[in-house]
Amino acid sequence: MYLLRCIECGEEYETDSLYTCTKCGGLLEVIVDLSNADFRLDGNNITLWKYRSLIPVKTDPVTLFEGGTPLYSLKTGKSSRVYIKHEGLNPSGSFKDRGMTVGITKALELKKRSVMCASTGNTSASMAMYAARASLKAYVILPSGKVALGKLTQAMMHGARVIAIKGNFDAALKIVRKLTERNEIYLLNSINPFRLEGQKTIAYEIVDQLGYVPDAVFVPIGNAGNISAIYKGFRELKEAGYTDNIPEMVGVQAEGADPVYKAFVQNKDEIEPVSNPETIATAIRIGNPVNAKKALQAIYDSGGRVLRVTDSEIVEAQKFLAKQGVGVEPASASSLAGFLKEELDYDTVVCIATGNLLKDPEEIIRVCEKPMEVSANPEIIEKLL
Length: 385
Ligand SMILES: Cc1ncc(COP(=O)(O)O)c(C=O)c1O
Ligand SMILES: N[C@@H](CCOP(=O)(O)O)C(=O)O
Description:
This protein is an alpha/beta fold. The protein has 3 domains: 1-32; 71-94 and 195-367, Rossmann fold (3-Layer(aba) Sandwich); 96-192, Rossmann fold (3-Layer(aba) Sandwich). 34% of the residues lie in helices and 17% in strands. The chain contains 13 helices and 13 strands. It has helices spanning 96-109, 122-133, 149-157, 169-179, 193-199, 201-210, 225-239, 259-265, 292-301, 311-322, 330-341, 361-367, 378-383, and strands spanning 2-6, 12-13, 28-32, 71-74, 81-86, 114-118, 137-143, 161-165, 185-187, 216-220, 248-254, 305-309, 348-353. The strands form 3 sheets. The protein has a 6-stranded mixed sheet with strand order 4-5-13-10-11-12, with helices on both faces. The chain has a 4-stranded parallel sheet with strand order 8-7-6-9. Helix 2 runs parallel beside helix 3, helix 7 (225-239) crosses helix 9 (292-301) and helix 10 packs across helix 11. The model has no long low-confidence stretch (mean pLDDT 98). The site of the ligand N[C@@H](CCOP(=O)(O)O)C(=O)O has 12 residues, from helix 2. Pyridoxal-5'-phosphate (PLP) binds next to helix 7 and helix 11.
């Protein structure tokens, strides 16, 4: 059993059909019955649905075998043990699949025939893929010219109707919220509390894989759902008696899209939206993150912090990871960029790499040395080796 609770006024609802509190407009959180937990954190058979007893679905899930992503150790030259959780190895290439397996299952439970999202790319790629699997119609609204090609092509190929607007992600989300108000089309951005229930399993998996709770978890912040979800996962493990502590949740934002960072340094629990967000990491090019309040709560409650990194620090971290065999898109590298930038004293750190290298080929062409073009002559080529 589970219910929805408003994070602002505490109002509770026994329905699956709400995105926000009807009393005060606040964000909703799913409260699951932790006494139902029936998995062991023994490092075996790790997939998202291993943790089904704490995931609020009533029917068999629509799954493409998401989760169970690798936790790679990383050499950084610092004294901390550093791990990268490579969410780019999910079916559509990002952590969004964890949210979509639950969100699309919920759409079917609610007898919806169509789903919709605003997107900087990954949400749309994932939603389109899972909607196709479930034979649901998918509608995507995105900022024209600002979505990486790998992601756009996924949404197109999986059959979504893609509508590009002259406006940024924040404007697209406003439109989606309006168009889904009447409840015919199911909204699948992270304001949907069920989406975050899938994403919280990142925390479960980290403890399952490591065998203990790390000191800190670094997470890129865009719309601010993932850091909120991961914190909730750690909180539930503690409340259910699996663990004794919660890691510091460290959010990382890009310099040109930093409303959560600014709120944190001013010790506020609300953001001031950034009107023209800009960064090379298009996935986190968001000025008015819808889950900012949840994220700030997670950061303050866990004793964490928010860091800010420049585009060149993001690209450096992306190359640093690539040199150790871990291919990620720019936004994903911001978590490590934050860790590398600061002198922070942790024994064990996990950085979340949120999306795959293949998502944004144009950025790679811009930041890497171009292939050399020569005639097909082995002698000439040998001289270049
Ligand atoms: C690759 C990638 N990293 C990070 C984020 C930010 O996650 P969130 O919006 O949950 O803060 C997103 C999208 O939101 C993303 O696509
Ligand atoms: N980066 C995201 C932005 C939307 O985030 P969501 O988690 O609220 O769906 C994307 O990939 O579109």
